[in-house]
């Protein structure tokens, strides 16, 4: 079971240098999973079996949040 740590809008957060550095390090260390589809709109930081993962998704952060609140899966 995955614990969702954060659901973030890629356009809004990618303007931050710290966020860009975080995503670059996560990519370099193999933590990033690209969800296939259109252009990426959001990223979800999770912990699965005590391992961090960053899912880059073509689904908007607002839609993912609605899915999470409704009890449905977000990916």
Description:
It is built from three helices and four strands. It has 75 residues and is an alpha+beta fold. It has one domain. A four-stranded mixed beta sheet has the order 1-3-4-2. The model has no long low-confidence stretch (mean pLDDT 91).
Residue share in helix? 25-40%
Distance, first to last CA: 13 Å
Tell me the number of structural domains. Answer: 1
> What's the number of extended β-strand segments?
4
Tally of DSSP helical segments: 3
Low-confidence stretches: none
Characterize the quaternary organization of these chains.
single chain
Strand content: 25-35%
Query: Would you tell me the structural class of the helices and strands?
Result: alpha+beta
Largest sheet: 4 strands, mixed
Shape: globular
SSE pattern = EHHEEEH
Query: How large is the radius of gyration?
Result: 12 Å
Topology:
Blueprint: E1 2-9, H1 10-13, H2 17-28, E2 32-34, E3 42-48, E4 51-57, H3 61-69
Parallel strand pairs: 2-4
Antiparallel strand pairs: 1-3, 3-4
